[in-house]
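OP here, attaching both records as promised.
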Amino acid sequence: MWYSSDWKEYELLDAANGQRLERWGKYVFVRPDPQAVWGEKSNNPLWKKADGRYNRSNSGGGQWQFFKDLPESWTITQDNYRFKIKPMNFKHMGLFPEQLVNWQWADKLIRSAGRPISVLNLFAYTGGATVAASCAGASVCHVDASKGIVAHAKDNAQLTDIADRPIRYIVDDCMKFVQREIRRGRKYDAIIMAPPSYGRGPGGEVWKIETELFGFVEQCAEVLSDNPLFVLLNSYTTGLSAATMGNVLTLTVGKKFGGEATADEIGIPMKDKGLILPCGSSARWVMK
């Protein structure tokens, strides 16, 4: 398993009974997590003294419950990155901390490439990977269908002091954007993507990962340069195994360019239990 253990201002304290206990900077929250199927919470008193909790609704969705006055948002720092943290809809906090291990991996590849690298970040959310790639020296095209989420990504770039770096922000359906890039003949040296299980584009376009992923990655291979550096595919869908995603990269990007695909689960260590909480899977392709 690839896991993110280097965080300084984020901490997964415990997870049990379908919930996780986390510290985001100086604030502590309880959020649902379907992977924490085991019982026996730790004796950590913060389970009962958290600053906020996301409560699931029996009819779907849920809402935040706060136990003290909190700022609308605050900042956490990791390495050279700075991120705006904010309790959001659907239990999100504006960042997926398990992705740090992938950001660090991409950072090393970009820095060691010895040439200018252009990165296409698809389903880019609030831009953690955009920040990492830009800090490593790459130019980045950041694409997400949500205008508000793209604005959040711009805030993260501003906080990290990279707002003047070459980053293009595009609010668009990722599949349609890639199709237009193919027609325009535009190429990228690396692609990062984290497609959702299900989603709708700004024009109502429907995305279902099980039926759309393979064809989409095939199209993404068409916008890679003649000397691509890497492709990173992330999934939060438990129905898609790491091996499945690795096969997708092998049969698309690997078929076109050669290279090697590897895949594994990703996760975050739990401080109180000494275990690792699974948080989805990633597949990585590199040119050898």
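Record two, same layout:
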Amino acid sequence: RKKYPEAARSRRTEGRVTVSFTITPEGRVTGIQVVKSSGHALLDQAALTTVTEASPFPRAPSNLFKGSFQMQVVLAFELM
């Protein structure tokens, strides 16, 4: 679901954004936030949107996860 913002692409802006969030047992995302900014607001917002639009995630197996669990991911925005 990651989409490179066109304005960032045209400016040749690249960066990595670290995002943390919680996934509920139902697969919903809560508490999403940027933990480490790329230094570019457009890329930071695109990272938040990516995680938000990926929700809901598949249900976690109940034998492995009894409740919500915290995730932290790095989204790289790199031009080829």
